[in-house]
Amino acid sequence: MTDSGTALTQRATLDEIVARCPDYPAERRHLYRQQGCWQDETFGAMLRRLAAEHGERVALVDGELRLGYRALDARVDALARGLRNTGIARGDRVVIQLPNCHEFVIACFALFRLGALPIFALPAHRRFEIEHFCRVASARALLIADRHGGFDYRAMARAIQQQLPTLEQVIVCGEAEELTPFASLYDETAEPLDDVPQAQDLAFFQLSGGTTGVPKLIPRRHDDYRYSLVESVRACNVTPDTVYLVALPISHNFPMSSPGFLGVLLGGGRLVLAPRPSPDECFALIERERVTMTALVPPLAMLWLDSAPHAGADLSSLDILQVGGAKLVSEAARRVAPTLGCRLQQVFGMAEGLVNYTGLDDPIELINTTQGRPMSPYDEVRVVDDDDRPVPIGGVGHLITRGPYTIPGYFIAPGEDDAGDNAHNRRAFTAEGFYRTGDRVQLTPDGYLIVEGRDKDQINRGGEKVAAEEVENQLLAHEAVHDAAVVAMPDDYLGERVCAFVLTRGAVPKPAELARFLRARGLADYKVPERFEFLDAFPQTGVGKISKKALRQTLREQWFTAPEEDN
Ligand code: OOB
């Protein structure tokens, strides 16, 4: 693939990677330490401490496997040694693409302990995305499942390895064939493992929902991410009695840290891993394990609400249902407490940092109608107009934010800054270091945020983010596509789905042929447009750009006719 950046034949050194990850300015680093946000504990050290504190208490349940804190810590050491034996060392990048399984949690901490840097891909990603991550970060290893959801990850990995000489290892959970079996790596010797990384070091990369042609990597450090866990544990009241069901894909920021699996471990609670988020499987686990808390995206929450009354499962242990990732309409929010017999917590977060929660004991109307407030007293949030001037309280504007766990910049991929240019970061952050979230919000007088819309060129497909430009670029590679504009179409269930407007040259291709083409290029399924519209010309804005507003309007007319801003 030529469109995903420079081909690297040599693996970047840690220093080269660090140089591509913008750091917080010295005065803010100092401030966040002084304020007690950053507490100088790495994730490797954190798990060691938790093992000493909680010993045999169960940390993790995966099917029939129950691992105590101490046993988890020991497995992490054994895997870290094994990974080290294969040559994986401090600073090496390792793309992890696993479904919800105990191996994910073990691998994650083993890499943290080595100071290697996981890149957290989603199980839904395909060759295009995974190759891109491996390429831009010059990853040494890729960790996959053998098969999951009917997809053979080994075949994908082989194809990627052929393209990328820097990708030395493919490690497989399950049947590895000629690749490296995960289970063979555990090294039970007592070889010491020093906790090499420091708390101010890079810890891993999350993925951005993105607005650009290729997905962006989000560098996170031990210090800032750990602080986001501390605040989440507080806001979500995680205690050793918490039993948290990981229903969403575990590598996403929401089930990872809000409070997610990392926050629940930090709070001494118990994790129950669900292989899939379906009501059938999850309700059975809630009943069996007496789950107290879980996190869902709105479409799944609605599915659970529809299923619960007929399911006959005992959900009485469930105390908190968190919903986030996309806007939960207030009508659905109102159904949560009566239908599931639990409290709702709305979560408005982003992999780049800022997380907002409604309070567990907030007035019910506030919980049902807002997306919460920033979890840290040190979060700086501003609602601004197009010229970055503050909008009066109660008005709607662009949300920009800065704080102790919001990144100061994206990873600058090789090829992006060849001209000393860092154009994307300059667009995505203000001169003062505020991240432009791309969300349009209203700030209420009591400091709560209501998400009113979006000004980023992205589709939020029930919590899954699709960058329009990425899909447009892929479509343009088809010989019959002259131009393409990808927009959101409203949908009752997912909130939005992906729709592509296409100008063709020559014969108009069948929609199914275009969808097949995109899948064959290795694009994740959730990004493939579910509707194609063929036009002779695009509607234009005053300055001659494609008017996505007009395109969306065409689609929305079937729904409602609210006016919207152009972009
Ligand atoms: C979470 O993270 P991302 O990085 O997948 O997506 C962030 C974007 C936000 O900028 C916003 O556009 C949208 O997703 N979003 C919401 C929302 N939560 C996220 N829009 C409306 N209402 C909400 N409650 O999605 C994420 C990360 C951590 C915790 C929760 C969600």
UniProtKB/TrEMBL annotation:
Q: Which UniProt keywords apply?
A: Ligase
Looking at the record, the residues that make up the AMP-binding enzyme C-terminal domain are 470-545
The domain of life is Bacteria
Pathway of action: Siderophore biosynthesis
Domain AMP-dependent synthetase/ligase, by residue range, is 48-411
Q: Which PROSITE patterns match?
A: AMP_BINDING
Name of the featured protein: (2,3-dihydroxybenzoyl)adenylate synthase
Q: Which organism is it from?
A: Kushneria aurantia
Task: Output the lineage of the source organism.
Answer: Bacteria, Pseudomonadati, Pseudomonadota, Gammaproteobacteria, Oceanospirillales
